[in-house]
Design a protein that fits this description.
six-stranded mixed barrel, alpha+beta, 14 helices, about 55% helix
Length: about 425
């Protein structure tokens, strides 16, 4: 029997039991729609999160932290061994990092957290981040207005784009919006020495305002690193030499995006922790890949259940067409011809259900895209099913149909012609 003859017979038989065919295909349709829609949502969420992260940070920046060892390792080491394994960001190690190919600029960081900045009748609490003046333009980001501080600007600062939006009234604590550019910010420190409280005030001039990064860095204040160290020294009443004791972190600017992974690996080889936007994106993408498998698996269960419906449909079809099978065999149809015909019928149920499921998923994806801004506080998620996912879903539906219809088809192919013709 030619394959085109088998296809004509299959389509004619499916048309005769139209209601049963439609109901069986609906089961497959729901399973396919669930798979495509849920995985499409996961892909869209992943893409949206990645875009948000990329827009909130410089993708060519790598942040380096001192190495650390876990508690289990620490318990198995002597104090001497620990000292030899823990790596600090001192001058010697900074020089090693700076020699790595692909680095455009690098600056150690020294911070003073939770400082109260006063301006007129308002105040703001923020971190004062110390960076190298000769590297500030590479590390902090682009300026919205003003200039970067230099080596001669001991008490000059640049602020994040939203720093002026974070002020409160001193008397009422109501929110204020302050234009800080060109203004003087007052910071007062106090320490407890010999039973007495000592105070010291610093006045910083805002010489530049950075462009918005869409992150918490928009609220930061940046100053020359030596100024921040001297403030800490006064506060602790002791000298501080981070070149020996180590910095809390180092910011590295890489020449191009393609070198970020290479530079990060080299830094890790030296023994430090290197984190970049790409590192975060990779970690998040791995989580979403796992989520896609979970959602696909859950939706796949409904498709497998639909396969049970195909088994039932095919079994009933064989009982109803037993005499037809006998007649076909008596005029020369082989077992292989019968098997092929019924497998094509089962595959057709999966195919039509798969096509319907894909069309339904497109409709659901369109609706989800429209309502996403209302469900996610203005964030629009463009849910689109990738072409490879559509093809996979249709092929998977066909495979489910073939697998589900194999044993009923095998039973039909093995029927004796004589017994089939006597069947009432």
């Amino acid at each position: 029997m030619r394959i085109n003859d088998s296809i004509k017979i299959v389509l004619r038989n499916l048309g005769r039991s139209r209601t049963r065919t439609i109901l069986t295909s609906i089961g497959v349709l729901i399973g396919v729609a669930a798979i495509v829609t849920l995985i499409s949502i996961s892909i869209a969420l992943n893409r949206s999160v990645v875009e948000q992260i990329e827009s909130s940070g410089d993708i060519k920046v790598v942040t380096v932290f001192p190495s650390s060892i876990n508690l289990e390792e620490m318990q198995n080491m002597t104090i001497r061994n620990i000292d030899s394994i823990i790596k600090i960001l001192d001058k010697e190690n900074l020089e090693k990092i700076e020699k790595i190919d692909g680095i455009e600029a690098m600056s150690p960081v020294f911070e003073f957290n939770n400082l109260k900045f006063e301006l007129g009748k308002g105040y703001s609490v923020a971190s004062l981040t110390g960076l190298s003046p000769n590297k500030i333009k590479y590390i902090s980001g682009e300026l919205e207005k003003g200039r970067y501080f230099t080596n001669s600007d001991k008490y000059s600062v640049i602020v994040g784009a939203k720093f002026g939006e974070n002020f409160l009234d001193k008397n009422t604590n109501k929110e204020l919006e302050v234009d800080t550019y060109g203004k003087n910010l007052k910071v007062t420190l106090q320490r407890f020495i010999n039973g007495e409280i000592e105070k010291k005030s610093y006045t910083f001039k805002v010489v530049g305002v950075l462009k918005s990064k869409g992150s918490m860095e928009d609220y930061n204040v940046y100053a020359p690193i030596n100024t921040v160290i001297s403030m800490r020294e006064w506060m602790s009443n002791s000298s501080i030499n981070p070149d020996v004791t180590g910095y809390s972190r180092v910011i590295v600017k890489v020449k191009d995006v393609n070198s970020v992974e290479y530079v990060s690996e080299k830094i890790q080889d030296i023994g430090f922790t290197a984190i970049s936007v790409q590192t975060i994106i990779k970690a998040i993408s791995n989580v979403f890949i796992i989520l896609q498998f979970i959602l696909g698996g859950i939706a796949g269960i409904s498709l497998i259940v639909a396969g049970v419906g195909i088994v039932n449909t095919m079994t009933m079809s064989i009982y109803e067409r037993t005499r037809q099978i006998g007649i076909m065999k008596s005029i020369g149809a082989s077992n292989g011809d019968i098997l092929t015909m019924f497998l094509l019928e089962a595959a057709s149920l999966g195919f039509f259900g798969g096509i319907g499921g894909v069309l339904l998923s497109y409709l659901l994806n369109f609706i989800i895209t429209l309502i996403s801004p209302y469900m996610m506080q203005g964030l629009k998620i463009n849910v689109v099913a990738p072409f490879y996912l559509v093809i996979f879903a249709i092929i998977f539906a066909i495979i489910i149909g073939i697998v589900a219809g194999y044993f009923p088809s095998k039973r039909a192919a093995n029927l004796s012609p004589v017994e089939a013709l006597r069947y009432e």
